[in-house]
Design goal:
This protein has 113 residues and is mostly helical. 74% of the residues lie in helices and 0% in strands. The protein starts with a helix and ends with a helix.
């Protein structure tokens, strides 16, 4: 069970790094957002290390995007079973809409502060 957990953590961590890279971030920028080195993030991308919940929470804060949404976006569509694809898409859309609402509320709050 422990080995399976490590594999899941490594795959999810690597998928998240690849997703952030596809959004235009460099390994250095990804690392800086979590207080980690570029070399550590490179090892994550190659599945030799995994991100911890603390790293993920720092990333969430830096990106201003809810962690569940980042993780849903990072999961590759081909890794989602076909029978769950509609549910996956619906969950992603709901979280994305909630994140947009949250960002809009923060902008309004900053303007009035």
């Amino acid at each position: 069970m422990d080995e399976q957990r490590k594999q899941v953590e490594a795959n999810l961590s690597a998928d998240l790094v690849k997703h952030l890279q596809s959004q235009g971030m460099t390994l250095r920028q990804i690392g800086e957002s979590m207080g980690l080195s570029e070399s550590f993030i490179s090892r994550v991308a190659h599945r030799r290390r995994s991100l911890t919940i603390e790293h993920l929470l720092r990333l969430q804060e830096a990106m201003g995007t809810p962690l569940p949404l980042m993780l849903l976006e990072a999961v590759t569509h081909d890794s989602v079973p076909e029978s769950l694809a509609p549910l996956y898409e619906e969950a992603r859309e709901v979280l994305a809409a909630g994140a947009q609402t949250q960002r809009s509320a923060r902008k309004r709050h900053k303007k009035t502060a």
